Amino acid sequence: MKYLMFVCTDAQPDTDKENEPDIHAWVAENDARGRRLQGSELAPAAAATTVRVRDGELLLCDGPFAETQEVIVGFDLLECADLDEAIEIARAHPMARAGRLELRPFAEPQR
């Protein structure tokens, strides 16, 4: 099952700096095991463009669609057996301590 893992900042990161995981080791391990299909850090939120169409008119706004202190700074596309495995992968990601991670399964195609 595919999960998109949003990597976000958090105003209240973990203050325990002991045994912090290394992002390069996390990427290498999950790539080697075929659990991480793709991922990337994103440009700063200031580089975002929000796109909407209302009454046929294209509306563009600079910046992210939500004004919050927490911002999406990256993503990883995971291939996991189930949510439990996705949670274990996310748990070892450095941003689980420094920020927050959101796991969202891909929707099943409707026929």
Automatic annotation (TrEMBL):
Superkingdom to which the source organism belongs: Bacteria
Query: What InterPro entries does UniProt report for this protein, alphabetically?
Result: Dimeric_a/b-barrel (IPR011008), YCII (IPR005545)
The residues covered by the YCII-related domain are 1-105
Q: What does UniProt give as the signal peptide span? A: none
Which family is this protein grouped under? Belongs to the YciI family.
Q: Protein name, please? A: YCII-related domain-containing protein
* Origin species: Nonomuraea rubra
